[in-house]
Amino acid sequence: MVNDLLSIDIIQRQLANLKQLTFEVTDACNLRCKYCGYGEFYEDYDKRENKMMNIDAAKVLIDYLVELWNSTYNVSAKRNVYISFYGGEPLLNMPFIETIVAYINNIHCPHRNFTFSMTTNAILLDRYMGFLVKHRFNLLISLDGDEYNTSYRVDKAGNPSFPRIIKNVDTLCEKYSDYFEQKVNFNAVLHNRNSVESIYRFIKDKYNKIPSIGELNNMGIKPDKVELFQQTYRNSQESLYQAEHYEAIEQDMFLRTGTYQSVTAFLHQYSGFKYHDYADLLFEYSDVKLVPTGTCLPFSRRMFVTVNGKILPCERIGHQFALGSVSEAGVNLDVQEIANKYNAWYAKMEKQCSHCHNTKACIQCIFNLNDLEGNPICYGFMNKQVFEEYRAAQMDFLRKHPEDYYRIMEEVIVE
What we know:
By secondary structure, the chain is α/β, with parallel strands linked by helices. It has helices spanning about 10-15, 55-70, 95-105, 125-135, 160-175, 175-185, 195-205, 225-230, 235-240, 245-255, 260-270, 280, 335-355, 385-400, 400-410; strands at about 20-25, 80-85, 110-120, 140, 185-190, 210-215, 305, 310, 325, 330. A ten-stranded mixed beta sheet has the order 6-5-4-3-2-1-7-8-9-10. Helix 3 (about 95-105) links the parallel strand 2 and strand 3 (about 110-120).
């Protein structure tokens, strides 16, 4: 059985070595994007009520984490932690952002450096770019390509957002060129009004940036919206392969494409040249039991806090999977209960995972499976034949692109 794979100590260590803390600054937004993850397609999130996150609750959570960062659970001599601001549209709650930035800059935490980051639709960028530049924010701007590509991104009155976004981004680029080059990137949503090629061409040609391109989330769809969702949805790999010079685009986008992500996971897990730590390098562990699925350990990568104070391991999963909460009164995070939840989910998946031939390089997140609390079926399961086909495909790619083997092994750091 796997009911003891995750312990209190493991979760405490993850919290004490947290890499990213993300606040849902507000659930309000000045746009009404047709495909929004909090929009008409979906039902697995808390009701949007134009709330602003409680500043005092955020400070309580930061103090809770600082105590852990300064505790014996911390194993990092000097880790960088990203303090990230998310929405809704985070720039609608600038007082929260200004207060938290000042608070973080004044805490005593000798084992941590802090980097601020934000995802924004850029509609209010003209008002606040000076502050973002001053504090060296890593800025991720949402833009789906050219004007037609971005036509799903409209305001409350249905007016297009593209002219305002471009005007503000161009101003930022011209006024703070060094900052723009070093700190600004773009993400796009793929749908039936754009393509991987059109997004890539527009952003690369106009701003000399390689965009991150994501598919529409296919979890939590309302039953009566399934057909409309399917009409809007596009698969990123299929879209990429429809490009005239897809290999050149794929190589330029590198880890932003599924092919390179797959090959990287394969190399790092099956090459024999990847080590988690010095002990992993010096000793062989033949009896180590793998955790079922490729789900991140809770808080091993990030913590996401909703505007309502719910604490989740990631912003990409449904709010029904909250692991705790925070308010002005304190942090409610029962690590034993979290361990019990995960161990119960692992137990559900153990039988499938024990017969899967790709357990080492699995990327299937349990939160993206249907009926997790009932009888979930893993979409990433590979029998022997499927795994051999997968392995052959990775090896064939590397034979055809030997230079990419060196690029992956030399440039890619997996945390």
